Amino acid sequence: MKDKKKRTISILLAYAGNYKALTFVGLALSAISMFCSIVPYVCIWLVVRDLIVAMPNFSKVQNVQTYGWIAFGFAMLGIVLYFIGLLCTHLVAFRTAENIRKIGMNHIMKAPLGYFDNNASGLIRGRLDSAANDTETLLAHNLADIIGTIVLFAGMVILMFVFDWRMGAACLLSAVISIVAMFSMMGGKNAKLMEEYQAAQDRMTKAGTEYVRGVPVVKIFQQTVYSFKTFKKAIEEYSNKAEYYQGEVCRVPQSINLTFTEGAFIFLVPLVIFLVPSTLHDGNFSNLVTNFVFYAVFSAIISTALAKIMFASSGIMLASTALSRIDLVMKAPTLEKCIHPKMPEDNSVIFKDVSFTYEGSRTPALSHISFRVEPGQTVALVGPSGGGKTTAASLIPRFWDVSEGVVEVGHVNVKEIDQHVLMDQVAFVFQNTKLFKTSILENVKIANPSASDDDVMHALKAARCKDIIDKLPNGVHTIIGSEGTYLSGGEQQRIALARAILKNAPIVVLDEATAFADPENEVLIQKALSVLCKDRTVIMIAHRLSTVVNADRIIVLEEGHIIEEGTHKELLDKNGLYHKMWIDYNQAVKWKITSGKEVA
Ligand SMILES: Nc1ncnc2c1ncn2[C@@H]1O[C@H](COP(=O)(O)OP(=O)(O)OP(=O)(O)O)[C@@H](O)[C@H]1O
């Protein structure tokens, strides 16, 4: 546990970079300031002592004012040093939080694009943000408080011997009982319990997010919250853990802690009563009263110090869970960077004995796939759902890196092509197009920021987007999502095609480009596609087999294997899976037309 705390602090300080040294300055200032804050208590002791000695002739007392000034001076110095120390630790905390965000985002930028399929970018950003925030309190306040409290206790032990060790021990004993009770709540097997409690909290948050995402489904099927069993179970698990921790584990130690934090008097008062007879006998009664006043006042700062330790412990715990969230982000795989990049020789795409297995999956999504697409050819990937079509297409622009084999673009392994060159070489049109909440013009320009507005308009025209722009209030400058602007799936797809046309890449990968299109949009999309694909190397994935009949070659993928390959005619003649798919497809089309007639 102690090692874990040390590790947490040293990892965090590594994120502080150049500001690490400032932490030590801040901590040293905090320690000195705590020392300064003890001095006024000593002055109180001296004042009380002089007053009691001079009693009843108080005019004899000479040094009270001097003690007053010394107390004031040290109190002010303590405050100033504490603030400068806090300034230093805050600077470190802010820089560390900034570095956590920067380093995390830099790492994520090197992750393959496919990683974001399973890890939503919002979730990753949320993880980094919350982790950065959770480390701030520890570095800005808690560490300084821990050091300050250590100095305080060291000061107490020294003062215990200087004035009256018995009263010092009484104060210290109550502090020690309080600390032991506090750590018994957090240490040993309770630390594990605390981790489980936090894990239950995390599970509840995740299940809650899933539930909110699924609200439309819940509403459509008129289900209740109880239909989301995982969420309900997560809430129950969390509340059981919380009740057990707060009720069973914390009740006794918490009560002891609170009693002794505020109650140095529990030992101090009986002790003094016990000592009165002997001091009256020795003639040291005035000394006893002076010391009692000192320890009674001094014990008040113990409770403040203990409360700070308590916060500091939870701060360390919070920071350590924050570090595990950062670890999750930093575990994201990164694409190998080539040291001596090569330029593709032409626009061909070749798969050589390629296999690929998703992380955590037992069965390969692709097994020993080999095919070649010559420059200017159109090759279609078809086959049953889950056959590996999208996976194969994703390996070309390195959304993932192959597990075995080689993918080549222009006769060069894609891993040996500079990432920017590869991205310039390949345009990818996804099934599910993402448009940004900005103008249509900017949305298209993302593909080629140096393009002129005229080029963008030309691309939009070629992608048959004129009707979309005409109906928008500010034409091409309309912000998508603003003023009730809504684009259908097919319309969004045409904007995405305009992007790909503007990019002007020699290789085009189309993943179900017509997936979300109604018949009217489909015709327009097909026209846009014919512009985009003209004289380019095209790899297209399609379920609507009518879109692939003219392809130079059709590859049929099933369960990660190529099971048939050829032209539309050759595959029909083979009488295999493609032939069956073609019959099924035509029956489905006919069924649609027939049922359409029935409705009419
Ligand atoms: N991100 C992922 N993580 C883990 N497994 C995945 C992931 N994406 C796909 N798979 C699995 O890989 C296999 C191939 O999926 P892929 O999406 O490539 O098939 P597909 O032929 O494109 O299917 P569809 O036609 O339904 O889009 C499937 O078993 C699928 O469950």
From TrEMBL:
GO terms for molecular function: ATP binding. SMART domains: AAA. Its main location: membrane. PROSITE patterns: ABC_TM1F (PS50929), ABC_TRANSPORTER_1 (PS00211), ABC_TRANSPORTER_2 (PS50893). The chain crosses the membrane at residues 21-47, 67-93, 143-161, 167-186, 260-280, 292-311. Residues 349-584 form the ABC transporter domain. SUPFAM superfamilies: ABC transporter transmembrane region (SSF90123), P-loop containing nucleoside triphosphate hydrolases (SSF52540). Residues 24-238 form the ABC transmembrane type-1 domain. It is found in: Cell membrane. It comes from the Bacteria. It is a multi-pass membrane protein. Keywords: ATP-binding, Membrane, Nucleotide-binding, Transmembrane, Transmembrane helix. This is ABC transporter ATP-binding protein. It comes from Massilimicrobiota timonensis.
